[in-house]
Amino acid sequence: MEELKPTLANSSPLTPLGFLDRAATVYGDCPSVIYEDTTYTWSQTHRRCLCVASSISSLGISRGHVVSVLAANIPAMYELHFAVPMSGAVLNTINTRLDTRTVSILLRHSESKLVFVDHPLRSLVLEAISLFPPNTPTPLLVLISDDAAIPAPDISFCSTYEEMVERGDPEFKWVLPENEWDPMTLNYTSGTTSSPKGVLHCHRGIFIITVNSLIDWAVPRQPVYLWTLPMFHANGWSYPYGIAAVGGTNVCIRKFDAQVIYGLIKRHGVTHMCGAPVVLNMLTNVPNNEPLKNPVQILTAGAPPPAPVLSRTESLGFVVSHGYGLTETAGLVVSCAWKPGWNQLPATERARLKSRQGVRTVGLSRVDVVDPDTGKPVKRDGTSQGEVVLRGGCVMLGYLKDPKGTTNCMKDDGWFYTGDVGVMHPDGYLEIKDRSKDVIISGGENLSSVEVESVLYTNAAVKEAAVVARPDEFWGETPCAFVSLKDDVAPRPTEKEIIEYCRRKLPRYMVPKTVVFKDELPKTSTGKIQKFVLREMAKAQRQNYTVGCIGRCPTQIFSRTSIPVGVLM
């Protein structure tokens, strides 16, 4: 056959930025963003993004420079997902719940040239920059304010966001990537297991994951999407670009409040929303809440959601879809594709099946569970554990300035090694059992903290639960459960009662030997429970509690203290 080569007509770089141009043409008069009493149309959002991109370029920001954003889920945060890469720069959204020192480290590591700062975070950023070593270049700062009339408060800020909108060129010719492999976003991992890493994604990867996410979730034209998922978290799983592609309406909120969420669903006719399993838990714990009049599609990911939480959420009228992804994949690449026959099963069995992560999405080439030492697939029996590996066009370019870290997870065998432990069921569905660091080895037996947590969540008194390894002189490690109880529970169960409850439902070696009651469990801003914090607490308590033991060691009751919990916005 005659060999034909690519031409300019068929090799234009893939980028999701063109979705905004199309939305302005097709859905120009339709609402694009709603925030409190403000509503923009897609024509207005398109114009504002071009103006901001123009203003960014006028500051000397050019192709490949990093532009950072610290902001809640407000209109400016949405617009900057387009405006920054439209200027040719790389978008870096930073977790708003990080401490000053960490923000300072990330700004220096990324060599950020410009930072957009939400006004409640002004002091945080100024303090972070004050920690820069002498003679280190500092980024320009732009203040985002809800009140457009408020000027920049001091010389630390070169402009306000609305000033950049006003002085920008609405006819700006946005900067196309020279190559679809050009970096587009830089996201730092949430740090649930280790120090944050800078994940680089290219235009091609974000394009693929965006289209992939729309297809897999079957998002229709013009949905009403409520931003309960922080946009700084993996760029809102790439849905800022996806909602533009289908001409939907973005309902923005500064803070997550379950009562407020129900009000917004009713007021705006919300059809879709996303969030970590903790979001489901919070929605189901609103007192005296009535089921929704119209179903709302809710997509959850971030940790294996306990089956009881899934069941309670669906009883309120939410239609839960469950998936799996990482910052390194820019969105969900595995989903629990639902089979029609499963609808005939009992509710408890449906919830159990839905708690599995599922099968690869259409945009991912392959997913498997392999022995991390040999690279060979484990048996598809639902019990043989191995490391989850992925392959596809939405996998990251690599970690910024970390070739060793990139090589460790993207090996010569062509797989991206996730660090997650899972099993493959006979029907080809993947189920995550743990992070590799969360597996507990007790007396030579590997036990899954997720399985123990799932049992704890079936207890009607339990609001949140997390299980980690606690060092043990005899067993090596034993499961230690951290539990927060529902506010209206009376009488409150004791440690002994929780342990006995688990003993009736779990093999003896999996039963927690220690239960720690907490008002709240420590979380990242995206709702993931920070198990590395709990592991350190369990380890510290064990070091302060030394007792000789033979066989099963006695349990230890910890003091009841409050831990600050990261909110979702």
Strand-helix topology:
Blueprint: H1 18-26, E1 31-35, E2 38-41, H2 42-58, E3 66-70, H3 75-86, E4 90-93, H4 100-110, E5 114-118, H5 122-130, E6 140-144, E7 159-160, H6 161-167, E8 183-188, E9 198-202, H7 203-216, E10 224-226, H8 234-237, H9 239-245, E11 249-252, H10 258-268, E12 272-275, H11 277-284, E13 296-300, H12 307-315, E14 318-326, E15 331-335, H13 347-354, E16 359-360, E17 364-370, E18 386-392, E19 398-399, H14 403-409, E20 416-424, E21 430-435, E22 440-442, E23 445-447, H15 449-457, E24 462-472, E25 476-485, H16 495-503, E26 514-517, H17 531-543
Parallel strand pairs: 1-11, 3-4, 3-5, 5-6, 6-7, 10-11, 10-12, 12-13, 13-14, 25-26
Antiparallel strand pairs: 1-2, 8-9, 9-19, 14-15, 15-16, 17-18, 18-20, 20-21, 22-23, 24-25
Pfam families: AMP-binding (PF00501), AMP-binding_C (PF13193)
GO molecular function, one term: medium-chain fatty acid-CoA ligase activity
Family: Belongs to the ATP-dependent AMP-binding enzyme family.
Provide structural commentary:
- With 569 residues, this protein is of the alpha/beta class.
- Among the domains are: 43-176, Rossmann fold; 439-543, GMP Synthetase, Chain A, domain 3 (2-Layer Sandwich), CATH 3.30.300.30.
- Mean pLDDT is 87; it is low at 544-569.
- Helix 1 (18-26) runs antiparallel to helix 2 (42-58), helix 1 (18-26) packs parallel to helix 9 (239-245) and helix 4 (100-110) crosses helix 5.
- The chain is 29% helix and 24% strand.
- The protein has 17 helices and 26 strands.
- Strands 2-1-11-10-12-13-14-15-16 form a 9-stranded mixed β-sheet, with helices on both faces. The protein has a 5-stranded parallel β-sheet with strand order 4-3-5-6-7.
